[in-house]
Amino acid sequence: MPRRHLVLAPLLFAASCAQPEVQPEGLTAYDYELADGQYGIERLPYDQPWPDFSIGWQQREELIEATRASLAYLGKPSSKGFFPAGPHDEITHDRMVRSVTRFGEVLETATSAENMLATLNDEFDVWIARGRSSTGDVFFTGYGTPILDGSLEQGGEYQFPLYSRPDDLVTDPTDGQILGRMTSDGGVVPYYTAAELRDNHHLDGLELVWLAHPYDAFTAQVQGSAVIRLPNNELFEIGYHGKNGHEYTSIGKILIEEGKIEASKLSQPTLRAYFDNNPSEIDRVIPMNESFVFFQESAGGPYGCLGQPVTAMHSIATDKDVFPRAALVYVETRLPDFDPNGQLVQRPTRFFALDQDRGGAIRSAGRCDVFMGLGDAAMARAGHVSSRGRMYYLFLKY
Predict the structure, then answer these.
(1) Domain 29-142+303-396 has CATH 1.10.260.40
(2) What pLDDT, in 10s, does the model give residues 36-49?
(3) Per-residue burial over 345-358, b = 16 or more CB atoms within 10 Å of its CB, e = otherwise
């Protein structure tokens, strides 16, 4: 089958199972495990005021596309296997479909911000993410899709491969969870660690693309997707196609603990500068993260874990064991943006999004990863997302 390349257009895509590398001090306080039977969201108490949802009026065009992506997922018979969800199974598949459908209709028919707000107030119930220790306080990180220099053939500066998924990787057919490696007698054992894969050449022959810098290969692994700029300036899109099933370990955290980087200065640019200045550290530090991601060509994507394209600033990644798939979410937090001088500054931000991806390093009701977009500017912003806020989920009342 011929490879499909693309011309760069103002379309923004995200990765499935992104793993935010920039993790600030105190983040473990948000890795809050719920008690048995608890879910990641609960009804907003009647004595708490609703947020001002009228901001959605300014975000209609992008939100319509994101809403359609959730509905495309919900239209698949397999999506019904993840419902009902929530406390007392109140979030049924039918209710989710009708909620997202109705929100899309409101986006297209509302005549003003005030009209949109009135409709949402009349027709929707509001739930809130439990957050850290059920306080409603959620920690936000960011991810994006980098554009990296590479080649489909090894040679010259292109010596650092990303790999296709191996045939012996076994996943659960119902939810795609990694089970391990198929043995010769038909059994399943834990898959090789990242170090074992590299050191023992288990992936020889599975090279999908070759990159020009070892840190670029690490970046693609962390983000779960990339757009590769080939030597002829064509762009080759790759996306997540599984991982080895081992837990993700932040190399940024490792370098902080070793005193190599100050916690207050941790960012993607800082990490890259560290490895540029200490090239021998790449082979020492990166294998300490036992997780390893496999890729595939992904024209028209990459995609979130729902199998649908995601939208910059309007798709989020959460722990899908405790948050409902494809749901409508309203976010209040602070996100980095560029000021007129090109400097990143943190600004209060409110936006609607759809819960369309799973965070590879997120296992909590107190965490959320925001997709920031494609390219260097988006990646610069994503590497500096480190803020607290709230998440509200909206469902039709009936």
Answers:
(1) no
(2) 778 999 999 988 89
(3) eeeebbbbbbbbbb
Residue 369 β-bridge partners: 141, 317
Q: What are the residue boundaries of the structural domains of the chain, listed by start?
A: 29-142+303-396, 147-297
Most confident of 31-40, 128-137, 187-196: 187-196
pLDDT digits (tens, 9 = 90+) for 53-77: 999 999 999 999 999 999 999 999 9
Q: Could you tell me the CA-to-CA distances from 70 to 107, 178, 216, 378 in Å, in that order? A: 15, 24, 31, 23
The H helix count followed by the E strand count for the chain is: 9, 17
**CA separation, residue 38 to residues 52, 83, 93, 364 (Å):** 27, 15, 19, 12
- Domain at 147-297, CATH class: mainly beta
DSSP line for 280-294: HHHHHHGGGS---EE
Rg, Å, the chain Cα set: 21
State phi, psi for 306 to the nearest 5 degrees: -85, 0
Pairing verdict, β 235-243 and 293-297: antiparallel
